[in-house]
Structures are given as structure tokens and as C-alpha cells.
User: Fold these one by one.
Assistant:
Number 1:
Amino acid sequence: MDQARPFMTGDVFGEVTIPGVTPDTAPDNARLGIVLTHPCSMRVDGVRLAPRLHMARVATSQEIPLRKWRDGHFKAMPLPELAGEHRTARFEDMGLVESASLLPERRIACLSPYGIHLLQQRFIWYLTRFLVPTHRLAEATEAVFEEAELEEEWVSRAAERGAARHTSVEAFHQWIRSSDQSGSTRQEQLADPQRRAGIRRAMRLHLAHG
């Protein structure tokens, strides 16, 4: 697992204690939990995690064929072949977890952007019985994922030069939140798909001369 990747919705951690949720004692589950909190809500300043994050228990389960996802099992998010087993995130077993317990080395899996949208879609259905098209969720989160990818690249390159992770994360957020000659912040510009390639080029140029 690349530890340069920022914590995101859909990250699966081991050794998670969810208050009010009985731990699954199966040895292959290792008290797994998945983050449900939106990326924009899980940090207080773009860098430090909020004190607590919403998480759901992840446990082994029978395989749920893809064709069955549309018409049932709405209390769960199937996670096929997670760590070699069929597992599900159980929305009925969720709570607030102390973020200090979510150590980078305990993160065992991350979802792709499409996987995160499926998780959000099923969670919204569980809460409201409203089926949100995943493409609408994608439209709302494209800039967030773009920023996460830029941060991962920045931190990875900084690590190659021996920089500490927390130092490079803070440097990235200072850069992405600062303005360029356009007068708008680079973070604001990520909301415009036409400008994302330019921001990425600018970041790589900055790193090359940093």
C-alpha cells in the first residue's frame, strides 16, 4: 500500500474498534473497517484528520454476484476479493472511530474512484432509498480526486528526497491553496476540468526546481 496516498473514503483498515459495534471474531477479518466520511469532511485544515471518522464494519460474506447488486443487499457494500476473501461493508454496523487509531500501516486497501462512487451510492440508498447515478457523484467529486492524486505524487517525490511525510503534506497544501498569476487558488482551479492539466504541469515544474 502506497502510504503517500492521502486517507480517503473507501479506505479499509485493520484493527479497527468501532464503538457500539461488536468486533467480528473471525481471525481473517482482523477487525476490518471502511471509511465512510467524505474526503472534504475528514480533515479540519486539509492536513490534520478530524478527531473521529464514520466507519462501517467489514466482514467476510458469501459472494454477491454483480447482477444482484441492483436489486438487493442494500444494507451492505460488496467488496469482492478483498484480501483474498469475499467481504462486505455492513452499513448497520457503523460508528465514529478515533482517527488517531487509523495508522497508515494498518490501511490494507483503497477503492478506485468508481468503487468510492458505488460505496456512496449504496450508502445513500441505505439512508434515503434514493438511487443517485454514479456519474452525478463523479461530477461532484472529480476535483477532490484530482487533488488527492496530486498530493500522492507530491508526497512520493518528496519521500524520494528524504522528506518527512507530514512536512511534504503541509507543503503541498500550502502550494495548492495559494494563488497563481490568475488570482485564483490552484485548488479552486481544479474545479475546472480545462485547467487541471495546467495545474499538474505547474506542480511538476515546481517540484523539479524545488
Number 2:
Amino acid sequence: MPIAGVGWELHVVRQNVQQRRGRVRTIGTYQIYHNGNAQNIKGTSVEAKGIGDNKVAGNGRRIQAGTYPLATQAGSHYVTIGYLISNDCDQTPKPGLELQQTGNRREILVHPGHGFLASIGCINLTSALASANTDISFVDSRDRVIAAITDLQTFAGSTFPHHNGQPIDNAWVVIDREP
């Protein structure tokens, strides 16, 4: 699924699967694009096990490859506007963006991870993970999600929503491959 080259796009390319003590995570890369132009905001993406499934709610799997419009997140644990900046992964609300049009799946987010994986269908952003034994650093992951939100706010300008729970015009997550 190539990017469309229009608007703000967070492109995730799934590459492989890692396993540790019975747990499974999907590893990929991510990069942000403005109207098809690559930005210097990129790294590693981490998702739940596959195969992608948007039909069954709460299935603990990654979502299907595809293109998803974005919205500001209005939850109790994750928000786009008004998140806390804390080094403690237990402090909420943490930063996040919500993917829309995910079939029967709800609350599919781009949000910080920690440990092996902090997702039951969402996307964690992080730096490179050398192996299945490498944990996601919460502070690094949090900073990457904040960088994505800040970049999107700057790109969208005055059209960026002023409240959580609102669609973001001209902004998508594009997910490639089913490894």
C-alpha cells in the first residue's frame, strides 16, 4: 500500500515478527510524509501479532494493512491535546492519535510503548530494536509520538482540531504488508 503523496501521512512498513517467551510483536519502520515529501521523522514501529484483522473487536491482533484517516484521541489513558509529559509510563493521559475507519476495531491508536510491547492492536513508535530481547524505551517512544503530533499540528495549521475526538483533515496512517 503506497502512500498517496497527498496531505500528512505516517507510513508504516511491516518487516518481520519477533517472539520472546511466548509473546509476539510485529516490527516495521515508519516515516512521516508531507504531500509525498519524506520528513526527518522516522524510526521503528511495533504492533501486536498478526495476521491483521479488522473484523473481530478485541482480538489482540494488529489491524489490516491499509490507509486510515486520523482523528484526535479523546480517551482516559491517551489524548492528542492535553497529554502529560512524564517519564513514568503509568502517568496518564499519554499522547496519542486515533486511527478511524478500522472496521469493528475501536480505539486503535498511535501511542507510546514500553517493555516488549504496549499494544493490543495499536502502533508504538520507537527507535531501532536490535532483537526480541530489546525493550521499547518509554521516554524515547513518548518523544516520538509527541514529535508526530507536533509535526501534524504544524502541517495542519489552523485546520488542526481544537478539541479531542475530532477528525483531522488531510491526515492518514498508511500501513504496508502482512509479514
Number 3:
Amino acid sequence: MTTDRFRYTKLAQDGRARLGRIDTPRGEIRTPAFMPVGTAATVKAMRPESVRETGADILLGNTYHLMLRPTAERIDRLGGLHAFMNWDRPILTDSGGFQVMSLTGLRKLTEEGVTFKSHIDGSKHMLSPERSMEIQKLLGSDIVMCFDECPALPADRKRIAESMQLSMRWAARSRDAFGDRPGHALFGIQQGGLEEDLRGESAEALRAIEFDGYAVGGLAVGEGQEAMFGVLDYAPGMLPEDKPRYLMGVGKPDDLVGGVKRGIDMFDCVLPSRSGRTGQVFTRNGVVNIKNARHADDPRPLDEACSCPACTSYSRAYLHHVFRAGEILSSMLLTWHNLHYYQELMAEMRAAIEAGDFDGFEARFHAQRADGDIPPL
């Protein structure tokens, strides 16, 4: 659907799992959606055209990395991030807050923002809500994330509360700095760690500010899947029903299924691309480590049901060989397969929600993975 504004439409619901569509001037985003991560204006080992062929509707770019190299100002002069990286569909950019917070010993936090030293050359920089909005505007991203602080877990309640309240003040400043930008969206980020009342306080503050979408932040930072799902049992329901809900930085295939079951619409994670480069492959039967010797003489594909180039044109034996030989082709093929698998998983979940069979899909998903990889020849 062609539109000059950002709009979310819920098309169906099965339990808490939601089927939807986000319309943007740059195209439609089918939800539940998985966003491949293009940290430095590229999804590692992939051409943008190839990423699109996997079924991706939207990519994620990284504010922190792009502001340092090649700089947001340079990207703006060169026509914006879409033109720069040859991706004409929607892009979401994170705020840079998560990366800055992880720079232990290299940053200083104040009410104004965060001063930090570049991991590249040690140069000094400042990120504030206003500067983050400025950078993301220069990049030209379609979905902008407000600037927040994300403490690692476990952390004590006092630290979580203070961090959440600071993030809410920064969210209001992000909203003011973002202004009115038709066709572009600003998402707020719920914080509060594993504390239900703090999550509720955060959601109330965000709803009062009003955003185009809402993220559940501060998870997948060391708490484990059981604790994460415990938060997702209530956190998405605290956010507006008529706006998209985004779980940041997640995750493994079973994380995605569990997240969708609990009402999440959008995900991102480096896992499928990073794992592809290290020989870890995701299939319907679970994880395959292509570097293992058992694959050296195996003429079968990674996954007979998969239509990606790695599975339709190459054997496990060949993929094992090029990985062991350190060939670049290994990263390309295994990353392509993983991203293809993730997009097929999202498509299967969308179909299951539309058919009112999400519970059945979930049972089949877990049963097939429990069977494990095909036995060695």
C-alpha cells in the first residue's frame, strides 16, 4: 500500500499473537517481522539484493557505528543511508544508547547525555537525546528509536529504577527533538528490568508522551530466556494495542516464537548473520555446526525443505570444506541460509496466526527441533 505516513494495522490475532502490517512511504512491513542487522550500513557477507531475496522487508542500522564511521554528516551529503547502502526499503536505526552503555570505562553518564571515547580511534564524542535525533535524521531512517539507557542485568532495583526514570526523561526530550516528520516514525522504549511495577511506570510515561510504536527494551542483556519470557508475559500488554511492539536485540528462533506468542511484532538480532560466519546454521531441526567432521563426506543439503542457495546448490560436504578452508564463500552462503530460515520462520508464524493455529504451529516447531538434526550417513 502506498502511503505518505507511517501506519500500523492489526489484521488478525490468535491468543496474544498478532498479524499486522506497517505501511510506510518506502513500502510495507509484514508483522511479525524480523529485521536483519546492518550495523555499518551492510549486513555482513550479504548484498542488499540478497537480503531482500530472503524475504526481509526492513533492515536495522546502527547509530553509534555510523556516527563514528563514515559519519552521519557524510552519509547525508551522499544522499542518505538508503542511497548509500543501496537499500530502498524501510530502515530502522537504534539510538546508539545500548552500544555507548556497553563501553565500560570509556564513557561518562550525566543528565544531559553520555560522553564517550570512540572504540576506533579514542576520539571524544557526546550523545544526547537531541544529538541522537539529529544523527538519525541525517541518516534518513524511517523508524527512529528514542535515546535511552539500558543497564545490564542483573542489577539492583534502585539502579534499574533510576535508569528507567532517566530514560523516560530522555524519551520526552527525544520526542521534542524529533518534531513533526511525516512519513517517519519515532518509537519509545519501555525499561524497568525484571520489575513489573517499574515496567508499568515506564509504559505509562511513554503513553503520555505518545509514540508511533513502542519497544520492550532492557532484555536479552544477561537475564536468560525464562526471565525474559516472564517479563513478556505482561510487558507488551502495557503498551498501546494499536501500535507496533518491538523486542530489541532478540534472538534465537525459539525466542522469536515465544515473543510472537506473547504479543511482539518486531525483532532484530545479529545472531543469524554472526552465526553464519562462525559455521553455526539454524534449520528446522535445530542448530547444525557445519565445522564438525561428521559433515565432511555428506552429500546431502543442510535442509532438504529449504530453498536458499546454500541448500539448493551445495552439499554439507562442500559447505564444511569452504568453512574449514576459511573461504569467504562460506560466510556468504551460511549467512544467506540463516537469514532465509529466519524469514521463513516469520512467514510461517504469520500464516499460523491468520489460520488461527498458532498453538499448533508452536507445538510442531518444538517437536521438530526436539528430533534433532538428520543422523550421520
Number 4:
Amino acid sequence: MNCTEIDWNLVFDILKSISIIIASGVAIYGINSWRRETKWKRKYELAEEALSLFYEVQDAITTIRSPFGNVNEGKTRERNENERAEDTKILDRAYVVIERFEKNKEPFFKLRALKYRFKTIFGKESENYFNDLVKLTNRILTVSGFLGRYWKDQGKWNYTDEQEKKNLERIEEYESIIWEGWGDRKDEIKEELERIIEGIESVCNNVLKNQ
């Protein structure tokens, strides 16, 4: 064969191989691009869902801690045997917070169910916002359970002035926890809730603001 003569079969084989390589490269790039897009979409949807639930819980806590209510609230509390009528009224009032939580608990449980998925995608540190919110909620509910007892003990005939003073101080402390904007104390619950919301916003908005 003349050295200047072209072996077209060889040329076609080379072009065919190049085409296969290019097609494979494009396919691999497409798959990787699809994977990145799918992963980003899941991350975006998770951030959107979590942040929405945090907002729902924030609103629920505001509702639960509202100092305004009606005379029918707290009536779902189980009565103790031989409970006095005057004690029933006091204990029902303390139970209002727990009753309100029961009516608004859905977003709290949805958020707890989301925690481990969120932790997997956004890292261990993000779990702190979920845990802090649970602690905050538990604090409100626990205090409401104790407050009725302190209300009942107020003004006991056998209390010394010092005991009465301490009881009143505890009542004021607990009331500032279960009621939003109550008394002259700083609303630590509201401030802590705002800190949690700001923290989770900073995590989620890194994704939501960069769509």
C-alpha cells in the first residue's frame, strides 16, 4: 500500500472509538450532574420543611404562653379524689398550658421526626437547635405542672414571712416562664426561642437563599 494512501477503515475505527469515548463522557457527566441536582433538591426541600416547622412551633409556643384565655380552659385535667373546689380552680388554671400544648402538638412531633434526617444532611451541630427547642418546651410544661402547687401554697396560715416570700418569688419566676410578657421579669423563654429560630435560619438559608 502506498504510504500516502489512507486506510479509511482505520480512520473510521478511530473516529468510532472517539465517539464512544465522548458519548461515555457526556453520559457520565449527565449522571453526575443529575445526582448533584437531585442531592441539592433533597437538601433544599429538607431545609424548607424544617424551617417551616420551626416557624410553626414558634407560633404554637406563643399561643401556648398567651396570658389571655377563657374560663373553660384547663377543664380536661384529671381531678384528684376528694379535691376541693377552690383547689380545682387553681390547678385547672395551671393546666391550661399543658392543655394548649395537647391541642398544638402536631408540629412539635413532626419536627422531632425530622431531626435525624436533618442531622444527616446538615451535620451534627444542627441537631442542637432541635434539642434546645425540646428542652425549652419541656421547661414550659414542667413549670406549669409545678405552678399549681405554689399557687395553692400562697398565703398558707403556717408560713413564715420568709417562706411566703420565697413562695411568691418562685411563683413570679414560674409565671414569667409559662406566660409571655408577664410581669417585670425579662422574658427568657422568648429570647431563647428567638435565638433558636435565628440559628436554624442561618443553617437553612445557606441553601434556601442560594437556589
